[in-house]
Every structure is written in structure tokens, then in C-alpha cells.
Specification:
- With 292 residues, the chain is an alpha/beta fold.
- The protein has a domain at 32-219.
- It contains 12 helices and 6 strands.
- Strand 4, helix 9 (190-204) and strand 5 (210-214) form a beta-alpha-beta unit.
- Helix 8 packs across helix 9.
- The radius of gyration is 19 Å and the shape is globular.
- The chain binds 2-acetamido-2-deoxy-beta-D-glucopyranose (NAG).
- 2-acetamido-2-deoxy-beta-D-glucopyranose (NAG) binds next to loops.
Length: 292
């Protein structure tokens, strides 16, 4: 009985993941026909809290699109220009020391182009835009580096990947130069997983970076559940008001099956104090999960 429901849970998760990949592709096309510039035509000062949140999400989403275009080698549509940001080179943001120390990871990043560092233009009309944003793009099915990263998510070894290292160095460096951790981090899919990991890690060290993440992979939601159960459950309940509870439990069961197969008591024994630290710091990520 137990293994049947675990199997069913696993089936649901796999099916949902497949549907999510297909839907992403469609949504990407659809969303890109919207012009983000339109949000600046309305008077910012009259917005209520809800509209301000939507505007902020649109701005961050546009920056993620910008990184995708760079990553896919398309002529840049300059999404960031439309939402009043400048794109900076990683070399401009990092110190000489970091450039030396992380040369390998940087070389990898120059090749992959997962990251974009954006600075808000002085004349930006939106009060909702943060001064600095680091945006991370997601996966492409035919890219080998990505497949390896996807596998790494499943094996929960993403921490050691070059993307994670360079992301953490960039966010820290921006924080050091422009006020402690005064950065917003955003990402989609694999980028969301990477961003979540780094933001959580920094939050554990007392550096509260604001993270906004679009469709993090389900495996990541599961691993997040170990330290932010409340936040993940809340997000899922919002998306699946009726099935949320079951769905969450099915995912959690599957996840714990996978996790228990990995002898990793060290990681698990760290989970509880980490949970306490994050709860005390009142850190939690903003997660935007697609209904599909
Ligand atoms: C993130 O951006 C908002 C503006 O949208 C800003 O108020 C906030 O301070 C930023 N977060 C951090 C940690 O700097």
C-alpha cells in the first residue's frame, strides 16, 4: 500500500514536471509578446501593494528573459533596457582577487552565460525596482552542462557546481561594495534552484538577500521543504488549493525515499539548526509557481 502510493506520488511528480517543461516553452513565447515598457506608463504613486508586487515581478521576469536571450545567443532584445536597467560585465563587479581566485568558474560562466548583473538606471521611474539585481536563466534540454546540473539537483550536489560558486561570489561582492547584501536575486527553473541555494546559504550567515524565483524544479521544492516546510507548503496550497496537501505529501514522500537512499546523515543532522536560524532571521524566498 505504502509503495503503491509512493509510486503514484512519483508518477504525479514526473507527469507534472513534464507538463511543466512543455508549458514553460509555450509560456515563454506567450509572455515575450508582452511589452514590459507598458508598466511604466501608469503612475507609480497610485499603485496599491498588490499592483506594486505585480510590477516588481514583471521587472524581475524581464531581467530573466534578458539573461535567457544572452544564453541562447539571440540578438539581445534588451529586456533590461525596457525596464530601466544596465547590464554589467562580471569583470566589472568582481575584485582583482576574485577574478584570479575564481578564474575557472568565470571561464565556465563566460561560456554558459547563465548570469546577468543589472544596475538600476538613475532615471528609472519605478520605486519597486531594486538597485541591484542578479538574474539567473534556466535550462536548455540540449545543453550538456545543463543536463549535468539537472542531475546534480536530483542528487543534491548542486552546491559544488561552478554556477553556484560564481553566483555566491557575485552576490557577496555586490553586497560588500554597495551595502551589506543589498541585492535582489531572481531566476527561473535551474536558475531558480541555484538562486535559492545561494540565498539560503547567505541567509544562514546572516546576509538576508531578497530572492524571487520562478518555477523552481520540483526536486528543489522538495529539498527546500527540509528547511522551509512552511513556505513551500504555502506556495503549493496557493497553486493547488484543493490538492495542495496531497500533492505536497506525495512529493515529500518521494523526496524522502530518494534522500533516505543517500547515506547523508551529516546533511540531515544539519537541517534542524538551519531551519531554526532561517526562522529566527525571518528569511523566506518568494516563489512563483506555475499552475501547470
Ligand atoms: C530588493 O528590492 C527592493 C525593491 O524592490 C528593496 O526595497 C529591497 O531593499 C531589496 N532587498 C535587498 C535585500 O536589498
Amino acid at each position: 500500500m505504502g509503495s503503491m502510493s509512493a509510486l503514484l506520488g512519483g508518477g504525479i511528480v514526473c507527469w507534472a514536471y513534464g507538463a511543466y517543461v512543455i508549458n514553460n516553452h509555450y509560456k515563454e513565447k506567450e509572455a515575450k509578446t508582452n511589452d514590459p515598457e507598458q508598466i511604466f506608463t501608469a503612475n507609480d504613486k497610485q499603485d496599491d501593494a498588490r499592483v506594486r508586487k505585480i510590477k516588481k515581478r514583471l521587472i524581475l521576469g524581464s531581467l530573466v528573459y534578458g539573461v535567457y536571450d544572452m544564453f541562447e545567443g539571440k540578438p539581445p532584445i534588451e529586456w533590461w533596457t525596457k525596464v530601466h536597467y544596465d547590464l554589467l560585465e562580471l569583470d566589472e563587479v568582481l575584485t582583482e582577487d576574485d577574478l584570479d581566485r575564481y578564474a575557472t568558474e568565470l571561464q565556465d560562466e563566460h561560456k554558459n552565460k547563465y548570469l546577468g548583473v543589472f544596475r538600476r538606471k538613475k532615471e528609472s521611474p519605478s520605486a519597486e525596482a531594486s538597485d541591484w539585481v542578479v538574474a539567473i536563466s534556466g535550462t536548455e534540454p540540449l545543453n550538456w552542462a545543463d543536463l549535468q546540473n539537472d542531475l546534480a539537483i536530483i542528487l543534491e550536489t548542486l552546491n559544488s557546481k561552478n554556477l553556484i560558486t560564481i553566483l555566491e561570489v557575485v552576490v557577496r561582492s555586490l553586497g560588500a561594495q554597495h551595502g551589506f547584501c543589498s541585492v535582489n536575486v531572481t531566476g527561473h527553473s535551474l536558475g531558480a534552484a541555484a538562486g535559492l541555494l545561494v540565498c539560503r546559504r547567505l541567509a544562514l550567515k546572516g546576509c538576508l538577500v531578497e530572492g524571487h524565483f520562478f518555477n523552481p524544479p520540483f526536486t528543489t521544492l522538495e529539498s527546500l521543504a527540509h528547511t522551509c516546510t512552511h513556505a513551500v507548503k504555502h506556495a503549493l496550497m496557493r497553486v493547488f488549493p484543493a490538492e495542495g496537501e496531497n500533492f505536497f505529501d506525495a512529493g515529500k514522500r518521494l523526496g524522502s525515499k530518494v534522500l533516505h537512499a543517500v547515506p547523508d546523515t551529516d546533511r540531515r543532522s544539519k537541517a534542524l539548526p538551519e531551519f531554526k536560524t532561517l526562522a529566527e532571521a525571518k528569511w523566506s524566498p518568494y516563489l512563483y509557481v506555475n499552475k501547470k
